[in-house]
Amino acid sequence: MAVTLVIGAQWGDEGKGRVVDFLSRGASVVARFGGGSNAGHTVRVGDKTYKLRIVPSGVVAGVEHCIIGPGTVVSPAALVAELDTLEFNGVDTSRVWVSDLAHLILPYHIEMDKAAERERGEDALGTTGNGIGPAYVDRVARTGLRAGDLLDLRRLRHALFARTHELRARGIALDLDATVADLARQAERIVPHVRDTIALLHEQLRAGRNVLAEGAQGSLLDVTFGTYPYVTSSVTVAGGACAGLGFGPKEVDAVVGVVKAYQTRVGGGPFPTELQDHDGAELRKRGAEFGVVTGRPRRCGWLDLVALRYAVQINGITHIALTKLDVLDTFYQLSVCTSYEDAGDASLPFAIARGARPVYESVPGWLKTTVSAHAFEDLPYNAREYISFIERHVGVPVSYVSIGPERSQMIVRPGAPVAVAASAR
Ligand code: GDP
Ligand code: IMO
Ligand code: MG
Q: d(Cα 36, Cα 56) in Å, to the nearest integer?
């Protein structure tokens, strides 16, 4: 085993955190390759709930090394707060490593993010307000600061000073002394975690250890392949793991696509299978669909297999982890989108933007509880049929089925990658 990728296959919040936690036992490294604290990954162990933002979810299971990779954007303030909260809850964070190449999110990025949203008015993207977009803009504009810069505060001050004019012209007053003083305090806490994560990763790979790359956001939020401009600013698809951590594609053994048994989206943008009716409200209520980061109600709808087939292609998904199947337990009948009408000859993001209409097939519900199933065979017949229906339409096996938020509520099917890890529990 080498690298297993865990990727969100929809619009985020598919349950990546709980899948990563489940697979963590068999890995020595869990690494985030993109995004920042716009992510909110939930891990439930017994009656304890952990909400991870930038720290890899493997930290809860006590994985040897948790890497915040070169492709991420890190807010020092948010990272300090997260490390403190984890430690307070008894989680050891001593082996959380931040790549010196990761870019920093500074308070002015957050101001810019919020100002840009205000300017967009009714067309606001609905960002999480964490400064993600402006920090990635600075990276490509070559004006950003990196975690490695926290080791040399004089240089960092100089670099910040060089930006004061430009920021003032944009209406942002940068208090240099206060900003550097805050960074100096945060650096004390963060610097012991900053290192060359590339060397560490390759050391582990050479030693034959398993690495899990933890995706953030979802494929339909990818800056290129998502429903642009209603996307995040990072590469969220599988290819981003190599570019965001620094390894070659040949290292990848499996790509696990995390798929919610229905569909949700938080923030603006088109959503073909969105439900505005009683069923949508029922999905939100049963699935507790409220954002981890912003608390916003998530928009809910039926599973979209056209979008899922696209996600399988652009990520090279080899296995699906289907989550929140239990949320569908009370539905008499389910609808699944299997094709689009009026899609024209366009890529999926353009087809969706131009108002492609979903065509549904009806599938009978099972009206039985699934939450205590231990094996696939324990699931009601119609639930197993629902899973087979998905497999037939997307051509990829559903190797994990999650039937509750708790660590133990996961069914592993034969042929699943890192099955060794799961059975080692
Ligand atoms: P992530 O961002 O992809 O890690 O997902 P989030 O943590 O934002 O959202 C997933 C939510 O669903 C969390 O509250 C999880 O605790 C919860 N969850 C995950 N898997 C299941 C499941 O199989 N059943 C139910 N009912 N809840 C789940
Ligand atoms: P996890 O990792 C769901 C969405 C925001 C907004 C858009 C841009 O928990 O699945 P940003 O702050 O990134 O500039 O916002 O992307 N978004 C997410 N939606 N889950 C996430 O992360 C998200 N991260 C960003 O709601 O629509
Ligand atoms: Mg989330």
A: 11
